[in-house]
Write a structure and sequence with these properties.
Helix content is 37%, strand content 15%. It has 13 helices and twelve strands. The strands form two sheets. Strands 1-7-6-5-4-2-3 form a seven-stranded mixed sheet, with helices on both faces. Helix 2 packs parallel to helix 9, helix 3 crosses helix 8 and helix 5 runs parallel beside helix 6. The longest helix has 20 residues. The protein starts with 10 loop residues before the first helix and ends with a helix. The structure holds pyridoxal-5'-phosphate. Pyridoxal-5'-phosphate binds next to helix 3 and helix 4.
Length: 387
């Protein structure tokens, strides 16, 4: 009999079946939620199951981690109680005094933590224009820079960073590269394949996709010393995600591909239409040829440009707030990446020092009918213009 090699199923196929794992004792298609905080020792004092206690590890969490590692083509994945706990674990695992480069445009909460708390912990945090790999190269201090943190597309201007170019320069200087790929999602970008060492996701967003779980994930290209220290930070600080939330996250990831592609197609359509809207001064979306990062995004993101965009209505901050006040279908709320579309005046939430213009409205496009989404925005923009 000729031997047939096992087929290599696509990430979409594997995620739809949560890797195809079933619960062997019951033959259940959906594995049970493991709630136990503690596990029984073998009579000879061993823990052959590999399970000891719920703070370092949990079988349901390991199921989700295997799916995330598959999606990112990673050697290992770790789940955390939030995106922030995942991101901060990376910085807490560095040695005091380490020099790190972080983008000028990035998720405001992490920027605030880096510029205050992380500095207090002894990290030398320096911000840099991450849209220019040459600016990062110039800021690298060989032997001292331990990490370059990137976010692409980056909140809330959707700034694009060339991951491969930055990784080449960083590695030559002895620094590692970590990418917050929350808004790119594993559907459109796989940073490890472009040379990154670590990838972070606020799994609260697209990975879960239903606005009902706060979670974070890290993946690593290699299980090296830094990864071991990150795992230790999670264990010692008790940052693991709970099993109920993990179960919801696994369910959400089954439809990741469908949700994200539908939302990104809607975002592209809206960006094109809104670019010609008489009440709008600017549309920021990497899928538009007018976006400064479009050429890199077109190379680096495969199959779509994500589902996040920002608009700057004519009339400044007052017009932006008035527009958000008049939507009926879009929900006025922070966060992103759910199946429902959200609109937010970002200046009201970002702290001092943010590069976010005060007239900016951030749009997280969900999976609703794009005609409905456009009609609702159009009436809100027109009504705000008359007010
Ligand atoms: N990274 C990005 C790009 C985000 O948008 C967010 C949250 O909005 C985070 C990180 C932090 O995630 P969490 O709110 O789950 O801590």
């Amino acid at each position: 009999m000729p031997e047939h090699p096992a087929p290599r199923w696509s990430a979409r196929t594997l995620a739809a079946q949560a890797l195809g794992h079933i619960d062997e004792p019951s033959r259940a298609l959906v594995p049970p939620i493991h709630l136990a905080t503690t596990y029984v020792r073998d009579p000879d004092n061993q823990y052959r199951s590999g399970n000891i206690y719920g703070r370092p590890d949990n079988p349901t969490v390991r199921e989700a981690e295997a799916i995330i590692a598959m999606l990112e083509e990673a050697a290992s994945a770790l789940l955390f109680g939030s995106g922030m706990s995942a991101a901060t674990a990376v910085f807490l695992a560095l040695e005091p005094g380490a020099h790190v480069l972080v983008p000028e445009v990035m998720y405001w909460g992490l920027r605030a933590w880096l510029l205050t708390d992380a500095r207090a912990f002894g990290l030398a945090v320096e911000t840099v224009d991450a849209s220019r790999p040459e600016a990062i190269a110039a800021a690298l201090r060989p032997g001292a820079t331990r990490l370059v943190w990137l976010e692409t597309p980056a909140n809330p201007l959707w700034t694009i960073t060339d991951i491969a170019a930055v990784a080449a320069g960083a590695h030559a200087a002895g620094a590692l590269v970590a990418v917050d790929s929350t808004c790119a999602t594993p559907v459109f970008t796989r940073p490890l394949a472009l040379g990154a060492d670590l990838v972070m996701h606020a799994a609260t967003k697209y990975l879960n996709g239903h606005s009902d779980v706060v979670a974070g994930a890290l993946v690593a290209a290699r299980e090296d010393d830094l990864w071991a220290r990150i795992r230790r930070v999670r264990t010692m600080l008790g940052q693991i995600l709970g099993p109920f939330e993990t179960h919801l996250l696994i369910r959400g990831m089954r439809t990741l591909d469908l949700r994200v592609r539908t939302a990104a197609a809607g975002a592209m359509e809206l960006a094109l239409r809104l670019s010609n809207h008489p009440a709008i001064a600017a549309v920021l979306y990497p899928g538009l040829p007018s976006h400064p990062g479009h050429a890199i995004a077109a190379r680096q993101m495969q199959g779509g440009f994500g589902a996040m965009l920002s608009i700057r209505p004519n009339g400044g901050e007052a017009a932006a707030i008035a527009t958000a006040a008049r939507v009926r279908l879009w929900k006025r709320a922070t966060s992103l990446g759910g199946v429902e579309s959200l609109i937010e005046h970002r200046g009201s939430i970002e702290g001092p020092g943010s590069p976010c213009p005060l007239d900016l409205l951030r749009l997280s496009v969900g999976i609703e009918d794009v005609e409905d989404l456009y009609a609702d925005l159009d009436q809100a923009l027109r009504a705000a213009g008359r007010s």
